[in-house]
Amino acid sequence: MIVTFVHVWVIPEKRVEFIEACRINHEASVKEPGNLRFDILQDAEDPAKFTLYEAYVSEDAARAHKETEHYRAWRDTVADWMAQPRKGIKHTILYPQEPAKW
Amino acid sequence: MIVTFVHVWVIPEKRVEFIEACRINHEASVKEPGNLRFDILQDAEDPAKFTLYEAYVSEDAARAHKETEHYRAWRDTVADWMAQPRKGIKHTILYPQEPAKW
Fold first, then answer.
1. Residues of B in contact with A53 (CB under 8 A)
2. Measuring CA to CA, which residue among B68, B70, B65, B82 is closest to residue B17?
3. What is the pTM of this model?
């Protein structure tokens, strides 16, 4: 199991549309067979900063996400709304270790 | 519902003990009535960098965590193992919005 944090900085005039694009991406991503979580978060102190918390059963499952139509649609939709390049940071899961708790 | 990311940098010689202290904290924290998640993650590229992903039903529930014995024991145990001060960053949850999905 792995988690990727995707940190995203969005230009002010596109925040509402960005959240809507993330809703669509979230709803489709949680239906992927290898997905465990796909949480969409907004920094409480900096409304321009969002984080996608993407948990998958394996590296392969995380990679498969990037081949989906909904990922590609999100990527293309938000491309011009970035205030700076987004950063994906992979993490090893230490706890909980039981797949059923994800 | 809120999520706090707690970013922690640990001195190399204490990583194993830090993970064990986090296991104990994780196991007790997920039993708190207001807790939704308490994931312990390690950066895949930087083994000194850990993140605690702490989701609670409310700000009050997140605050109550800091009054627990297990939190205080973790805090005191790891105090001398920090390579730099840890950072807690609060986030608003956008999706999923249904409490049952947490």
1. 3, 53
2. B82
3. 0.96
